[in-house]
Amino acid sequence: MTSNRADEAVSAPAAAARRYVSSPATVGPRTEDFNSELHARPSIYFNGPAIVEHVAFMPLDGAIKEFHDSLEADGEISVRVERHTEFVTITRLRKLDSEPERWPESDLVEDDFARLAGLDSPRLVCHASILVLGTPPDELGAVLKSFDFGDTAASSIGGGSAQVCSDFRVRGDNSSRIILFNKDLNAHRLGRMVRRMFEIETYRSMALLGLPEARRLAPLLGGYDAELVQLTNRNLRTPAHQHKQLLEEITVLSSHIISATAETRNRFGATAAYAKIVEERIALLRETHVPGFQRFGTFVERRFKPAVRTCEATVLRLEHLSRATMHLLDLLQTRIQVEIEFQNATQIQAMADRAATQVKIQRAVEGFSIIAISYYLLSLLKFIYETSDHAGFHVDPVIMLVAVPVVVGAVAITILRVKHALKAEH
């Protein structure tokens, strides 16, 4: 009884704690997506001889709307459809009763694979087939010749657990062929190894989609380089007052470079990402040398990396051109700004000179103003004096003589006080 009560005492807080722990269903769809990504896209596990076909398509509109995967199995045939960011893959496994002496013909065409993925006339990216056989033969060359393989690359993979061979030729049905001799891989390791081989082929093809863009840009970048040199030399010789046309041409060149960068940024970025995946998958093969054959991964890298480096070099050229063009534009704008500031300084100095002249004129006019106002006031006094004389009121002429300096002095004092008051306000 004591033991049971102790168990109940321990389990009660634990049960109470569990009531406050959210289940995966209550965490939200975002957490579920993160967790499910860890288990996404499992391999197709199998044993024995089989032919595995793998086809990758890109939708014509370039958009993948759904990212769910599906697996269908019907007897000896299994089909897995996987949706990636840019492409859709269909992997079809067909088990064989025995090891064939010739390459087994496919019972589906590309349109059939597209229908399995629910695509309508998509763009083919990759079509690869892997024939899985038993233990590697002692005379590998004769077996490869019977399967119509040409100059072949071969490697022992998985620490010697299997052997992979391919001539990397594209046949009439747009497919490349790979033979995988299974020495001691179990179903799970075999499925993962087959998937790894398909990923190398698929991501290699996806990475090479950037090569046509690099080739298309090569002559354009050469023209941009020459134009940039010509504009730079003109910037040294062009007078300051003729900078407008040069500024327009540099702006147009910069717009072309920015447009080319924007058009190819995503493609070249994807090329770099896919190339990295290919390198990682090749490293995971853990290849060892097969006497008389070039290694599978070495063959891929020697012919794949130059194309990737071409894309990388194109990206660098675009970045350098954009940076150099913006630098030239900044130099020209600085030059224009300095010229504008010099013109502004000249205009300010001219305005200051005009203001000084106006002050001198104003001072000269002030003297005339005193005379003019005094004249009008004295004329008014004279009119009053004459009117009073006609009215019979006689005023001593001496008063008029005294009024002249008084009026002139009063006017002068008044004008000077007004001028002093205005200066005090400013």
Automatic annotation (TrEMBL):
Q: Which domain of life is it from?
A: Bacteria
Q: For bias kind Low complexity, which ranges apply?
A: 9-25
Q: What keywords is this UniProt entry annotated with?
A: Membrane, Transmembrane, Transmembrane helix
Q: Which InterPro entries match?
A: DUF3422
Q: Which residues cross the membrane?
A: 364-385, 397-416
Q: Where is this region: Disordered?
A: 1-33
Q: What is this protein called?
A: DUF3422 domain-containing protein
Q: What is the lineage of its organism?
A: Bacteria, Pseudomonadati, Pseudomonadota, Alphaproteobacteria, Hyphomicrobiales
